[in-house]
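Limitations
The structure tokens in this dataset are predictions for the assembled complex, not deposited experimental models. Users should treat interface geometry with appropriate caution, especially where small molecules or nucleic acid strands are included. An illustrative entry is reproduced here so readers can see what is and is not provided.
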Amino acid sequence: MIRDTSIGAKIWSIAIWVVVGFFVLNLIALIATVIIDSFATQWLRSWLPVAYTTKWYASAWDEFQLTQVLTVTFEIVFTVVSLAGLFGVTAAYAMARRNFPGKRLVMLLFLLPLLVPPITYGIPMATVLYQSGVGGTFWGVVIANLVPTVPFVILVMIPFIEQIDPKIEAAARVFGAGTFRLFVHVLLPMLLPGILAALLLVLVRTVAMFELTFLAAGPTSQTLVVVLYYSVFAAGVRAVQSIDAMAVIYMLTTLVWLLIALRFVNPTQIVARSR
Amino acid sequence: MTDVSGDRLSLRQRLALRGLDGTTLLIVPALLLLFATFVYPFLYGLWLSFAPKAGGIFGNYATFFSDPFQYDTIGTTLALAVPVTIISLVVAVPVALRVRLMKRQRLLTTILVLPVSLGTVLVAQGLLNYLGPQGWFSRVLMLLHLSNGPARLTHNYWGVFASLLITGFPFTFLLTLSYITGIDPALEQAAATHGANAWQRFRHVFMPLLVPGLAVAFLLSFVQAFAVFPSAVLLGAPAGPTRVISVAAYQAAFEQYDYSMASAIAMIMAAVQLVVVAIILGARTLFYRGSTSGGKG
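Predicted assembly:
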């Protein structure tokens, strides 16, 4: 490593840490206000609330029917995760193992839903969903969420599969394993860490996926983040603390999975999708 | 009959030689799914945009570009997305160059991945409290005598700007970091051995190697920022100063139920993004393109 010891380098380095510190400080303060406010009896015109209570969690849970919302959220998320895994891993296997004409075009098709922002393709997609009758239903939300997650699984899995030596598969074939047994007994155990990481990231992304769910969801198929949006949108109808209590619950549902995911992947992998 | 089966066998073999066999067919389910849910709706939307409720083929586009309330949304969105993306990238590069040298980057990257994974809705709700007239940010400004009264930072341009920066900067930074860590440190050491100072090393070693990656980081961040929706509604003034293009598209679809117009606006949104992508990729080819690893070749 190069050690630069001049005054200029030191000032530069300090300046960088000040910028990072300022950013992180604001970020933490922003999250802290939500958490503190959710426990506040009243928080107006002062640095900290007057007194603390946990009643907002109970009232938020009833007001926003969180039992139902959380059930729907996890039903949708787990359906998306399993379907994305099924479609994604099989396609990634073919992409990693075969070279065929038009492969670059197929790759481009898999990249596009990750590059085009959801709101851009979400509006035409929602139109088609509503016209075919699935818009506003459970399956409408699931289908909408599969659009970015299947390509995501494919792109994460391709390098994982490529690093497995094809000779291992050939050996299993020699010993008489069919495609199914080959997959279950040979490939799956070796790919499991990769699949797990990919699916956990899909889980985090789907819990937080606002735009597509918002466009495709009906009254009974809203996930937690959409309910949160509507309550912030209609601010004034309910107490701010109640909304913040729900925001904390939402944060917890995301963070649990994020922390588990971070045991398997590097944070940079969450955004750097295709290298 | 044997002739036919022999023929089919050879066809299968010929296909297999070109990489088409049973395994290749495994991409078919995913491919069909994306055709049905991504390609088809996009083409359908394109077609629908040329079949307006009133007027000729280009009726929707004519309406959009003749009404300042509609076409101003492009400028409004660019005025948010471009500065946020440029600031994110300009700050992300030096920070990533520094963080690259850290032994324990994990804590910082974990903190920075939070706003990306929590999403814009939560950040918007947090900022409404935090940047509000009675929020901590405003209080600190008053404490430091930087502002006389409570600062007005929500329900206007700056609220949306702050939310885009909070979610956009970590995104850009993590992308940039992944590019910068991909550059072989030996290249910088070689430059230092030859007496290049920090600025020269950056200008002549890192910059040329980074430009392709930075172009991609710029594009991904820009495209995300350009599609700003929840925070423009929650933290901005969606009726006026922060009526961004996605709000216009949403209102056309779900408030006026004019799917044809909504599709047209979505296509205009995609077209603006495409133009920016084309400009950036065009500019990128003016720079060095090649290996970021050291050694020969």
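Some entries come with short summary sentences. For this one: Chain A has a mean pLDDT of 89.
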